Each structure stands twice: as structure tokens, then as C-alpha cells.
């Protein structure tokens, strides 16, 4: 008797949600910080929430919100946000093979979710070679991340009057993100970059206007580059 074992489509959905849960624990203070920053900087909580829905990237959001509050020119603001998010181009190039055999609609929708957590999640798994499996996992992770990120930003806006000083959140956000993200990164350059970025962001957190996060990004990129060039990497 021929018995055919069918793969359940829900396997990737459950796996993505399971992998996403600890990531969101680490990202929660970061998302709250976006909402708090929007309110306390004077640009408005709605702007903070909108930035979460459009950018889906904490570092770029903090950069944009602080520059907007400081009266930066639109061109300078766009240039800064683009520079901060430039690393996503590298992520996209790395996982591009997974998008080649996908439906056209997915090739348009899927890249919207190319961010640090989703990249880390898919690159640590070895069971997503099948286009359908990758698509289900990626969409579940991306939509789940976006929904949680926006929801936590809204919560930050609501709780802004009672949350601690933003300086405390400045430290908590990268510290918790470091604890969750680094163990998921297998490649040495990625681990070195993420570690250096998070530690630098914590140390430089007293700097005003999100400069500490920008310093973290710069140091992280440098550390990843140097590690990648190391003969032992």
C-alpha cells in the first residue's frame, strides 16, 4: 500500500510564530521607545505610529523622528533615513535566491518585510529551500512582526505619560535586542556586527537625539566588515 505523507502548510506558520515570539520580547522596549519619542519630541504620537507602519525599522524611525523634531530639512531627513536603512540592501541581496521562483505578487510584497529580525530568522533555518515553505514562513514572520511592532508603538504612545524617562528605554532597547538577536545569527560577521552595534548603542545611549543608535550602527557595520575580511571568518 502506497502511503503518501503530505506536508501541512501550517508547519511554517507555526514555526515562524514560534521563532518570532522571543524576537518580539527583545524588540518590545524599542517599539515602545518609538511611541514615547513621538509624543515627547513634539512631533506627535500619530507620526510615530505612521513611521512604524511605513519604515518598520527602529533606528531609521528614531533618526527621522528626532530630526523632524529638530526642524531638519526634508531632503536631509530622507537622506539620513535612507543611509540608516542601507543595510537592508545587503540583506535583500543575500536572500534574493529565495525570491526567484516565487509568484509575482510575492516578489512585490515580500521585500517589504526585509528587516533585521526577519533576515536573522530565515538565515538560521535550513528547511526553507522549497518556495512554498519559504513564502509561508516569510509572510507569517513579516506580517506578525509588522502587526506587533505597530501595536507596541501605539502602546508606547498611550503609556508615554507614565513610562520612565526615555533615557532608560534608550538603554533597555538595544540591550534586550542584543540578548535576543545575537544567538540567532550564525555567520561570524553578522554576530560581530550585531554585538558591536548593540553594545555601542548602550554605551552611547546618554547622547541626545538618538545619536547613540547611529553610533551603534556605524560601529556595527565596521565590525562586520572587519570580521568578514578576517582570514578565520
UniProtKB/TrEMBL annotation:
How does the protein's chain sit in the membrane according to the entry?
Answer: Multi-pass membrane protein
N-terminal signal peptide: none
**GO BP of this protein:** L-valine transmembrane transport
GO CC entries: plasma membrane
Q: Which UniProt keywords apply?
A: Cell membrane, Membrane, Transmembrane, Transmembrane helix, Transport
Q: Where are the transmembrane segments?
A: 20-37, 137-160, 197-224
Entry keyword annotation includes Transmembrane helix: yes
Q: Which InterPro entries does the entry link to?
A: Brnchd-chn_aa_trnsp_permease
What Pfam families does the record tag this protein with?
Answer: AzlC
Q: Where in the cell is it found?
A: Cell membrane
Family as reported in the entry's similarity comment: Belongs to the AzlC family.
Q: What's the protein called, per UniProt?
A: Putative branched-subunit amino acid permease
Give the organism's phylogenetic lineage: Bacteria, Bacillati, Actinomycetota, Actinomycetes, Pseudonocardiales
Amino acid at each position: 500500500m502506497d502511503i503518501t505523507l503530505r506536508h501541512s502548510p501550517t508547519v511554517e506558520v507555526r514555526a515562524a510564530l514560534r521563532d518570532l515570539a522571543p524576537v518580539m520580547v527583545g524588540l518590545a522596549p524599542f517599539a515602545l521607545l518609538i511611541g514615547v519619542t513621538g509624543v515627547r519630541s513634539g512631533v506627535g504620537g500619530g507620526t510615530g505610529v505612521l513611521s512604524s507602519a511605513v519604515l518598520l525599522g527602529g533606528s531609521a524611525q528614531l533618526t527621522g523622528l528626532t530630526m523632524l523634531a529638530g526642524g531638519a530639512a526634508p531632503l536631509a531627513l530622507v537622506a539620513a533615513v535612507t543611509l540608516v536603512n542601507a543595510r537592508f540592501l545587503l540583506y535583500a541581496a543575500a536572500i534574493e535566491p529565495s525570491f526567484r521562483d516565487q509568484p509575482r505578487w510575492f516578489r512585490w510584497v515580500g521585500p517589504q518585510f526585509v528587516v533585521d529580525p526577519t533576515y536573522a530568522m530565515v538565515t538560521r533555518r535550513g528547511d526553507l529551500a522549497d518556495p512554498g515553505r519559504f513564502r509561508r514562513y516569510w509572510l507569517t514572520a513579516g506580517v506578525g512582526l509588522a502587526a506587533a511592532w505597530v501595536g507596541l508603538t501605539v502602546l508606547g504612545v498611550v503609556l508615554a505619560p507614565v513610562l520612565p524617562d526615555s533615557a532608560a528605554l534608550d538603554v533597555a532597547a538595544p540591550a534586550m535586542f542584543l540578548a535576543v538577536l545575537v544567538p540567532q545569527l550564525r555567520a561570524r560577521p553578522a554576530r560581530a556586527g550585531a554585538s558591536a552595534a548593540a553594545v555601542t548603542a548602550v554605551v552611547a545611549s546618554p547622547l541626545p537625539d538618538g545619536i547613540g543608535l547611529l553610533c551603534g550602527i556605524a560601529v556595527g557595520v565596521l565590525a562586520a566588515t572587519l570580521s568578514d575580511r578576517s582570514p578565520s571568518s
